[in-house]
Write a structure and sequence with these properties.
mainly alpha; 59% helix
């Protein structure tokens, strides 16, 4: 049942690759709009630079606490990183 989460009352489709791709696109767009380098963002958000780069390129998953730190460092609401999901 890859890609599906089963609840007692319903089946929910969950395309994780699409979700992380959307987060990656939003992260890149916001970072570029604010003219913040990966290095500065990694220091400000306390996220390893390589991990942040991988998240931005859709190659790594980000936990909720990491996404919250990234959003705070970018000075945006978490919902902006998740927009379009």
């Amino acid at each position: 049942m890859a890609g599906k989460i089963k609840y007692a009352y319903q089946m929910v489709e969950c395309d994780e690759k699409k979700i992380y791709s959307i987060i990656a696109e939003n992260l890149y767009r916001i970072r570029c709009e604010k003219k913040i380098s990966i290095r500065l963002l990694s220091l400000t958000a306390d996220v390893n630079e390589r991990h942040l780069y991988s998240i931005q390129n859709g190659m790594a998953r980000a936990s909720l606490p990491v996404l919250i730190r990234i959003a705070k460092a970018l000075r945006v609401e978490l919902s902006e990183l998740l927009e379009g999901i």
